[in-house]
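In practice, a research group might receive sequence data for several interacting partners and want a quick structural hypothesis before committing to experiments. The following worked case mirrors that situation: the sequences arrive first, and a predicted assembly follows.
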Amino acid sequence: MCLAIPGKIVELLPERENLALVEVSGVRRKIDVGLLDDDPAKAGDWVLIHVGFAMSKISERDAADQMRILAMLGEDEAAMQEIEGYGLGDSEPRPSEPRPLGSG
Amino acid sequence: MLAVPKVRFRDAQIEMAHGAGGKASRRLVEGLFVPLLGEASGEPSAGPLGDAAHVRMNGTRLAITTDSFVVKPLRFPGGSIGELAVNGTVNDLAVSGARAETLVVTYILEAGLPTEVLEQEVRAMAAAARRAGVVIAGGDTKVVEHGKADRMYIGSCGIGRFIEGVEVSPQSVRPGDRIILSGPIGDHGITILLARGELDFEAEICSDTRPVLPLVEAMAAVAAPGIRWMRDPTRGGVATSLNELALDCGLGICLAEEQIPIHDSVRGACELLGLEPMHIANEGQFLAVVAPEFADAALAALRAAPGGQAAAMIGEVRAQPAGTVLVSTLYGGTRVIDMLVGDPLPRIC
Amino acid sequence: MRFVDEFREPELIAKATQEIRRLTDSERLYRLMEVCGGHTHAIYRFGLKDLLPPNIELIHGPGCPVCVLPMGRIDDGLSMTDDREVIFTAFGDMMRVPGTHGSPLEYKARGADVRIVYSPADALKLAQANPDRHVMFFAIGFETTAPSTALTLTRARALGIRNFSVFCNHVTIIPAIRAILDSPDMRLDAFIGPGHVSTVIGCRPYEWIARHENKPIVVSGFEPLDMLESIVMLLRQLRDGRAEVENQYKRVVPWEGNRAALKAMAEVFQLRPYFEWRGMGFISQSALRLRDSYADFDAEQRFRIPGIRVTDPKAAQCGEVLKGVLKPAQCKLFGNECTPENPVGALMVSSEGSCAAYYNYEHRKAALTGLTALTMPAQAI
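A structural hypothesis for the assembly, expressed as C-alpha cells:
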C-alpha cells in the first residue's frame, strides 16, 4: 500500500503514450505516468513511484518549506523562554524541564 | 549426545527457502543433516556449523569445504557461474582461516546446452583459478535431460592448509570484539535480481565476486592472534551470517547502520523494491570479528590492500541481548534484524 | 537519495524529538494510531519508538492489505492455478501468505506457474508476451494501488488483450478507520494518516474523523522526519484541544487528491456491498470489484472459485490487536503457535502486520530491557 519512492524523470519515451524513464540513485526503470494526466510529467520532474506508476509530482518548494520549518523547531521555544522570563504571563504551559536557549 | 540420531526436521517437502541460506536452511542442516551425518561419522555433532570442516591427515590439519552453484542467469554483469564456483570455495576456506590449494569440480549439464556456453564457463573457471592461486585437479561431469538442470549446475570442493597463527571459532568471540566488513554490501544479489529481467530495472551494478584470500592474508599479517571469527556473507547476507554467529556464540551483536558501506545504486534498488540490504547475497566480501586491541590495525591493513579500500568497522559484540543482532540508527533508535526466512522478496507495502 | 536523505537528517530528527518531549504532558498517556502498514514498517525500521517519551503509545492500525485479506480469498486466487494455462502473478508481499493448502510459493514448488511482478503493468506485458497462456493478476492494496490496476485494465482494453484478468481484492481505507472508531473498546487519541493513500484520495475524506469523532488526524509522509513532525502536529492539536485534518506530507499529497487516479478507478471499479476483512469481520462498502463493463477481465467471473470462508481460530485475537485493545504479546498465540514463519492470524502474515513487526523488531529487545506488555500496560514497548 505504501512503498513509494521519489525518482527523477530522465525522459519521456516515444514508444508509447504515458511512458517515462525514471531514475532513482542510478537505478532506471520505465514507469507509467498516466496518473499525472492533470499535470503531465516532463523530463526533470521529480515524482513519487509506486508499483511502476507515478502517483504524484514532488513539490521541491513544499519540501524546502518543510525543511525550513523543521530547522526552526525549538527556536520558537527559545523566543518563548525569553518572553516568559519577562513575567508577562501567557497561556502556554511551561516546559517541564529547562531547555538551552538556541537549540540549533 | 544421543545414542540414536534424532531427525528434528519436520517440513513435509523441500522448498526454495531451504536453500536460501536463512532460517529454513539452518533448520534443514541442524535438523536433518547434522543428526544423521554428524552421528554417522562417529563424531558427536560438533556444534556450530562453520564454512569448512577441519580434518587431520597424518598429523597435518587441513580445511576442506564444498559448495554448489545454481545461479540463473549463468552470466551476469561482473561475473558468471564459473567464477562463483571457484571464488565461492576459495572464500569459504579463506574465512575458515585457510589457503585454498586444490579444487575438484562437478558439472551437471543439461542436454542441449551449447558447447560454447560450457567452454565459456570453463575458461572463466580457469582464469579464476589462476587469479586465486589454486589448482583445479579434477572433476566429474554428468548430463541430465533437457529441463532438469537450468542449463548448468557446478559443484566445487576445495582443500587447503591453515594460515599460520589464524584460528577462528565462534567460541572465541568475546564481548567488546569489533566487527569488520571488507566492502560494500548487496552488489551480487541485486545484480542477479536485475539480470533475471523479471523486474525490468536497469542499473550499473555488478557482482562483487572475487577471491577474498588476499584481504584475509593482509589482515592476518598484522592481526592474526586477534581474529576470532570470519564468514563470507553469501545467501542471506550480512544479517544472516551475524545472526548465526550470535546464536553460535551466545552473545549479542550491535551494528551501526551508517557505517555499513553500500553503493548508492544498490541502496536505490533496495529502496525501490522494499528489500533489506543486509539480507542480500555478497560474493566478494567477508566479515571478521577481531579483538579490540587488534581491530584498528586489522582495518588499516584491509584498507591499504588492493580491493579493501571500502572496508569498515561496522559494530561490536556485546554480552546482551544474547543471540540477537541489533542495528542502531544514526539518531539513537535501535531495531532487531533477524536472519532471512526465505529468499528476499520485493514488496510494495 | 534526494527527497529521502534530507528527511533522515539526524540534527533535524533531534530537534523534532526535543519538540515532542516539550509538548508531551508527563501526566498523560497519548494513544496514537498509525493507520498504514508502511508507517508501521517505518516506525520499526528507524527505531522511532526509542525516540519517543514512554507515555506516547503507537498503535498499529489495519492498513496492511495483505494482513486483512481473508485466507479464503487466497485459496480462491490459488485455485485458478488448477488451470495449467494460467500464470498466477502477484506482488512479492503475497508470495509467502499461507492459504489453506499452502502459499503461492508453495504452489510454485509443486509446479504451478507463479511469478512475482513489481507492477500490474508487468503482468499485462507478460500476457502480451505469452498469447497462448492466461495471465491472472492477484490485485491487492488500498487506494494507493487501485488506480494502477485500473489504468492497467484500461490499457488492456485499449490494446484488445484477451488473455489477461484481475482477481480484485482492493480495499478502501475509510471504512476500516470507521470500524475502528465504532468499536466500543477503542481508546485512541489521534491518527497518523496514510500518506500514500492520500495522494489519491486527498485529505477531505478524513474530515469526519475530526468533525464528528473529534480526533485529530495528520496525513503523514514515511521518512523519520515526516513521522516525527506529524507527531509534533498531533501533540499540538491535543494540547490546544483542537481536532483537525492537517497535511504534513504537502510535498506529495494534494488536498483534493489525484483526479486522474480517481477517474481511472471510477471507470473500472465499483464498490462491493460488503467484504470480509480478516480480523475485523464484514465491513460494508469497503472493497472494490470490476464493473460489468470490465467483466471480461474479471477473474472472479472467468474462473469458478471455491468461495469458501475460512475463519481464524477463536484463540487468535487479531481483531483486538488491530483496534489497539491488546498488544501483540498479549495474544495467547503470540510467539508460540503464531510466529512469522507459521502465522495463524492476519497480523503475523505480512512483515508489517502489527504482530509480525513486533515479533521481528521488538520482541527480543523487550526481553533485554525486561519490559513486558502484561506488567506495564501503560508503557509503550
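Before designing any experiment, note the following. The longest strand of chain C covers residues 56-63. Residues 169 and 215 of chain C are 29 Å apart (CA to CA).
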